[in-house]
Specification:
This protein is 5% helix and 44% strand. By secondary structure, it is mainly beta.
Amino acid sequence: MSQHDDDLICVGHVLGAKGLKGWIRVFSHTSPRDNILNYSPWLIDRGEGPEAFDVDGRSEGKHVLARLAGVDDRTRAETLTGCRLFIRQRQLPDLAVGEYYWSDLIGLAVETLQAEPLGRIAAMMETGADDVMVLEGERERLIPFVMDEIVREVDLGNRRLVVDWSPEY
């Protein structure tokens, strides 16, 4: 993707073709997984810049089946295997105050209440109880994303997050 596409969010990737009429199997990063179908168009870059595709589809087991406008046969669908699927940030619905998209949190610097750096958020994980931040720094840390109890401040403007967490944990 080009530099002017920094507002793109990866929402999944193409696993392969399904059938003869251009359907693709998609691994979705959205929750629930079929929410990926709420965002159209998808942007796919196969090396020549992002190309927009209107999309429709359905959930099938652990994956999503999708049909992209203009992709009408298996051969064309197979050319998309391995491609990542993007949407623009503005396609996401507005959130309530105190709610955040994972894509907004990735890359934030995390520090303790005493301003001790703990690392940067490299990824987010969904667990049975709470979402968990995966921090990279002098060592990897897993910190639950629990607003008010652990996460005390999210400052997107300054790209930082403050937690009530000991560096010894």
